[in-house]
């Protein structure tokens, strides 16, 4: 068998994990590998330095496994993660990091801007969210409005058992999907309960199918 490169090996190992988990590997100073997930992407690039406050930094500083929540000030998004330092000939050589999305913190509504003020909408009533014209539109059966948070922010805050990112411009509530139709180039069209159509893009189609189990 031909020798397998470290990057190829890490890519294969990454396939064993959920599509919701990102994986990073660093040496003692910088990241040497990063594989992002659909659910959480810290925008790490090989060559980026390991900065103070990150899990990789904490694991290597303490020389032990670290597992905790990191707020959005470090990478711009909140995340949960686990970092484990590794050694070569008894000397610290780097760190392996698994990155999980942060879950909703007990909230059960999205507060939407209206013409006269704001309106709290229970998660269960939200059909989908759409990024359009530099705004995020929240669509329900009887009402729609805008919110200042981005789709990426909502992706981390909304309960993942109900809301799935299916397109760079859409997050849908799976409980409001009436039917799923195949479309061209391995994509899908979702017929929602409010009779609107939402696209599942090719880059999200495999992730979408895996989460819905079809």
Structure description:
It is a single chain. The chain has 214 residues and is of the alpha+beta class. It folds into two domains: 6-101, Beta-Lactamase; 109-212, OB fold (Dihydrolipoamide Acetyltransferase, E2P) (Beta Barrel). Helices cover 18% and strands 41% of the residues. The chain has five helices and 15 strands. The strands form four sheets. It has a five-stranded antiparallel sheet with strand order 2-1-5-4-3. A five-stranded antiparallel sheet has the order 10-9-8-12-11. Strands 13-14-15 form a three-stranded antiparallel sheet. The longest helix has 11 residues, at 202-212. It is globular, with a radius of gyration of 20 Å. The mean pLDDT is 85.
Number of discrete domains: 2
Number of strands: 15
Coarse shape: globular
* Main sheet attributes: strand count, strand direction, barrel closure: 5 strands, antiparallel
CATH class of the largest domain, please? Mainly Beta
Rg over alpha carbons: 20 Å
Distance between the termini: 35 Å
How would you classify the helix and strand content by structural class? alpha+beta
Number of helices: 5
Give a brief description.
With 214 residues, this protein is α+β, with helices and mostly antiparallel strands. The protein has helices at 6-14, 55-62, 72-75, 151-157, 202-212; strands spanning 22-26, 31-35, 66-70, 79-88, 91-101, 109-113, 118-122, 126-132, 135-140, 144-147, 163-167, 170-173, 177-182, 188-192, 197-200.
């Amino acid at each position: 068998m031909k020798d397998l490169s470290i990057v190829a090996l890490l890519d294969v190992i990454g396939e064993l994990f959920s599509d919701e988990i990102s994986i990073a590997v660093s040496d003692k100073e910088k990241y040497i590998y990063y594989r992002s997930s659909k659910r959480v992407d810290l925008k790490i690039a090989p060559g980026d330095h390991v900065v103070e406050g990150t899990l990789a930094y904490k694991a290597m500083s303490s020389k032990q496994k670290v597992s905790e929540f990191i707020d959005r000030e470090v990478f711009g998004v909140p995340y949960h993660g686990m970092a484990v330092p590794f050694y070569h000939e008894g000397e610290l050589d780097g760190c392996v990091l698994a990155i999980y999305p942060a879950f909703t913190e007990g909230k059960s509504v999205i507060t939407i801007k209206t013409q006269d003020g704001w309106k709290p909408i229970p998660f269960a009533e939200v059909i989908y969210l759409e990024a359009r014209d530099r705004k995020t539109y929240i669509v329900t059966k009887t009402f729609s409005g805008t919110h200042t948070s981005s789709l990426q922010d909502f992706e981390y805050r909304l309960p993942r058992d109900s809301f799935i990112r299916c397109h760079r411009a859409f997050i849908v509530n799976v409980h409001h999907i009436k039917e799923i139709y195949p479309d061209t180039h391995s994509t899908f069209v979702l017929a929602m309960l409010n009779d609107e159509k939402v696209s599942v893009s090719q880059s999200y189609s495999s992730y979408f199918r895996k989460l819905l189990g079809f």
